[in-house]
Write a structure and sequence with these properties.
Rossmann fold; alpha/beta; nine-stranded mixed beta sheet; 2 domains; single chain; 28% helix
């Protein structure tokens, strides 16, 4: 049995989500190949080859993979799937768009958001917004999985690098073309890999309050900024800040929830955090039931005082 893991990268390094998905892959089989696909991404393949437990890095470079379009990536993975029993991707936007196509073409079921590996063909996943655990047994010769990366620790780098082998591109997919993208540069850590996350909810009241009250604290803490679905729906924060069942799943060392009531949808995305701090004026807010530390108070008074106490960036 062997495993093929689709790596996500920025052409220079693989993402933390890939290192966490590798941790899950190694629990299935000790023979894991990492597939690095893109354009001019040899440096990323070199980085993938240094991850502990990688048997080899498979490098595929072509202009058609520059923007990680699901159709082209899925066809490539299917072409390479013959030697593998398990095909894995991190449960990110890319993994969630590619792996269902892979499963459909192979005519097998897909197991999404695996949170624990029981056996090479048996997995746990969270359902009902994390309030229940489902055990899934794969009945096929091949398993297609996406990994809930917040449930696994990152694999460290190894002292020696695995070999890098080049493979030919898969078939072209002319019916799909890349139109454009909008990337916002914030200078802050990426939300899903940040050590500290500070999130605001509907209680923040406006986007201006996010700017005035949360951003200065996030800058001093070196934290990523998140938001509840209610805050995003109200226009206080952009979609890519949303934490929760329909947003991003995070597992930082410290999660600070400000003005967030603690709805099930939001808890599903952050309850794996090591330490949770909640600030809310409602002492009956559900967020206090999962918080390690809670402060009942008006955030408009608490946050300026908190900011004043942070003299230097952490």
């Amino acid at each position: 049995m062997s495993v093929l893991l689709l790596a996500e990268h920025d052409n220079a390094k693989v993402t933390d989500a890939t290192a966490r998905a590798l941790s899950a892959a190694l629990q299935i089989d000790r023979s894991v190949d990492v597939l690095v696909v893109g354009q001019d991404c040899h440096t990323a393949a070199e980085d993938a080859a240094t991850l502990s437990g990688v048997s080899r890095a498979i490098l595929v470079q072509d202009a058609r993979y520059q923007h990680f379009l699901a159709e082209a990536l899925a066809d490539l993975i299917v072409n390479l799937s013959g030697n593998y029993q398990t095909l894995i991707a991190p449960g990110t936007a890319i993994g969630k768009s590619v792996m269902p196509r892979v499963a459909a073409q192979l005519d097998v079921m897909q197991v999404t958001d695996v949170s624990r590996v029981l056996t090479p063909t048996s997995f746990e996943r969270l359902i009902y917004a994390g309030n229940a655990i489902q055990i899934v047994e794969v009945p096929h010769d091949k398993s297609v999985l996406t990994i809930r990366v917040a449930s696994f620790e990152s694999v460290a780098a190894s002292e020696s690098a695995a070999p890098i082998e080049c493979a030919a591109p898969g078939p072209a997919f002319p019916k799909t073309r890349f139109v454009g993208e909008s990337i916002r540069k914030t200078g802050r850590p990426e939300l899903t890999s940040a050590r500290i996350v500070i999130s605001g909810g509907r209680g923040m009241g406006s986007a201006d309050n996010f700017d005035a009250l949360i951003k200065p604290i996030a800058d001093k803490l070196g934290a990523a900024i998140g938001a509840s679905r209610a805050a995003v729906d109200s226009g206080f924060a952009p979609n890519d800040w949303q934490v929760g069942q329909t947003g991003k799943v995070v597992a930082p060392e410290l999660y600070i929830a400000i003005g967030i009531s603690g709805a099930i949808q939001h808890l599903a995305g952050m309850k794996d955090a090591k330490v949770i701090v909640a600030i809310n004026k409602d002492e009956e807010a559900p967020i206090f039931q999962v918080a390690d530390y809670g402060l009942v108070g008006d955030l408009f008074s608490v946050l300026p005082e908190f900011n004043r106490t942070l003299k230097q960036p952490v």
